[in-house]
Amino acid sequence: MRPGAWLLLPLLVSLPVFGDSGWGGAERPVHQRRTLVLPSSPGLVPPLELHLAPGVATVVEFEAPLLAGFEPPVCDGGFVQISRLNEGAWVFVATPALPADAPVLLTVNAEDGAEPLRFSLVTRGDAVDLWVRVVRAPASTDEDGAELMARRLLDAPDARATLAVPQEVAELNAHDSRGQVESVLWLGRRFFATVAVRSRKKGAPPWRLVQGRLRVMLADGVLLEWPAHVLSGGANAIGQRHVLTGLLPEGASRLELALDGQDSPGTFQPLRLEEALSRP
Questions:
Q1: C-beta neighbour count of 12 within 10 angstroms
Q2: Same domain, 146 and 263
């Protein structure tokens, strides 16, 4: 992958199928390990999801000092039992009463001065968490430069390459809107994805994007999920463009993107990493 290359991404309409070493499509739930990076404003975006299964223990570790000595909360309704494993980790065990069709929301007190942590406890037929680590976003030294580049992409649409087949990454608001990746620019391990959200109903405002989430598989098999840096252009009667940027970790594979509304987390869709033919 050479720096500065525009990638023309083919249309990808479904997640790939993996065995026990991957996720999705398996005959039995995949046992997964994940690291979740906290958003900068947890109250403005959907809560972090924990994928539980009745009778399966899920260990959730918190980066110090996120817990700040707090004891595990009691989950309303008795859907999940939460116990303390050590100073920085709790164990979640879902009971058979955990609804299969609706998430259970859990709020956890955090360190002094920080917003509470919000979790959505869900059951999924394809995956269950065995281990989850919750961390804060690391400091970045190139965010100012990345934001400047993103603004240039928003302000100069004629300079953007477009995909031969735009990649649809979201059906939104019961098919009232759709999100498409129009272009992707790679600068080393840093990428910039231009996403267009358009309304399919005449006169209806486009769906409002509040967060873009990224997911990769690390070399040790852990899934890393973190919020992208999002810059939004001006909205018009039919749509709005956004530029999402992130830094691909060393040795990562299977880059995926999800688009979130305030109360509606998106579904991850893959973005291919291979070099492709490009045009200016």
A1: 17
A2: yes
